[in-house]
Amino acid sequence: MKPSLAPYAFVAPALLLLLTFGVLPILVAVPVSLTDLNLAGLADWSRIGFVGLDNYRRLFADPGFWQALANTGIFALLGVPAVIVVSFVAALLLHRSENRFFRALRAFYFVPAVTAIVAVSLVWGYLYNTQFGLLNHLLSVAGLPPARWLGDPVLVKLSVVFVAVWRGTGLNIIIFLAALKAIPQEYLEAAELDGASGTRKIFSIVIPLLRFAFLFVAVTTVIGWLQFFDEPFVLTKGGPLGESTSMSLFLYQEGFSAGEFGYAGAGTLVLFLIIAGVTLPQVRARRTDADR
Known about the structure:
Shape: globular
Helix content: over 70%
Largest sheet: none
Distance between the termini: 33 Å
CATH architecture: Orthogonal Bundle
CATH class: Mainly Alpha
Radius of gyration: 23 Å
Number of domains: 1
Structural class: mainly alpha
């Protein structure tokens, strides 16, 4: 009996989108990064010159690149653990009850994930406003001086990360809830009969059984934060003085604002290699653990 083609038909649209918008741009970036392609080159291909590895030498000598790379690392170190922990804790709390209130609360937590980033930026821009923002108003009520949420080099990182964590937890909460639903209740009931506390059940049963869910959330979250773009772009444009410029925003500024497509292509490949170097060991470790 021949295998059915139905599964491949269902997978084909997603695979086509992945190849078109994921793999193809990377393949195009390889030759582009070896040229001096700019706006003039797009208009007249005869103006495109081969520069070899000059774009990479220039990239590694650019202080802006290293600043953006350091900012991205800080964003990831702050954001990834926060998203995973907040999502898991919220999922545990929402999983405890099935009444209407908690079902509505699940939808409420998911709203930021589907809200347009422009609308989000407008709301948080007003909240962070130095003169008449709600947050500084609360500080004044408490007798504290106003804070420059988007103007201070340290606070701007925390402010941008907070908005991104707020937006990023909704989808991961749904993933953890689905994984929690799949845990056999017999394990939890047996542990309860043995006198295990709620905390013990979470650390000894729930978390070990959710290893794959944690891996999936961790990998996707790391990739998302290494490609961090929306919040810095709409809230700060990378300011002040580049303190909130991420790698993706740096590449956007060099490629689309400055028109240096060859230079931006080199940076794109470097970012791709960083993402691959961070995520592939996690997937390989999961495979090794599953084979045992």
